[in-house]
Model the fold of this input.
Amino acid sequence: MLFFKEKALLDTLYKIRSVTSRKNLQELLFDDLRLEEEAIMQLDWNVIQSLVPLYHSTTLNTLLRWRDAK
Done:
């Protein structure tokens, strides 16, 4: 199965360096990128969790921390 939405989100966030706080990540997702929280929460987080380590990205690790805090 292909996971276009999950990979697209990770690829986009990977290009944005050094987002280290959940607050800044939330502002990035919802204010700058204008994504809907409901749409993000509906993504397959098992896929996201398995892909994040492959990127070696602080921003993506922050994404996982943000999700865990929800």
Q: What stands out?
A: The radius of gyration is 11 Å.
